[in-house]
Design goal:
Layout: H1 2-17, E1 27-29, E2 31-32, E3 57-58, E4 60-62, E5 86-87, E6 89-90
Antiparallel strand pairs: 1-4, 2-5, 3-6
């Protein structure tokens, strides 16, 4: 009987420690390569290419578009980002409301 109780407690402890889908993020940050993020181009919106200024939203990609190593590709040109890792931005028009929670590539909701 004691072994059964210990077995049950072990299963209960592992189920509490295993992260669920709710705790895992459903998106990756959208990144730019060196060419697309060089100089002041990093301050341009990924969608409309307008200047974002100091008010901007961080762009996201969903888990389907960022699966495996695809999250390390530039959202504009598709090249490998490497060590640059510039975060892509959305202007206040393209990210207003909850539009910043949608994938920049496919348009799916990332939450």
């Amino acid at each position: 009987m004691f072994k059964k109780i210990l077995f049950f407690l072990a299963i209960l402890a592992t189920s509490v420690c295993i992260p669920t889908e709710a705790s895992a993020p459903n998106y990756y940050p959208a990144l730019l390569c060196v060419s697309c993020g060089f100089g002041n181009k990093i301050q341009n919106c990924v969608k409309c290419d307008k200047w974002t200024g100091s008010n901007y939203y961080n762009a996201r990609i969903c888990t389907n578009c960022g699966f495996s190593s695809k999250s390390q590709n530039c959202v504009k040109c598709g090249k490998w980002v490497g060590s640059a890792r510039y975060e892509a931005r959305l202007c206040t028009t393209c990210g207003f409301g909850h539009k910043d929670e949608y994938c920049v590539k496919c348009g799916k909701w990332t939450r």
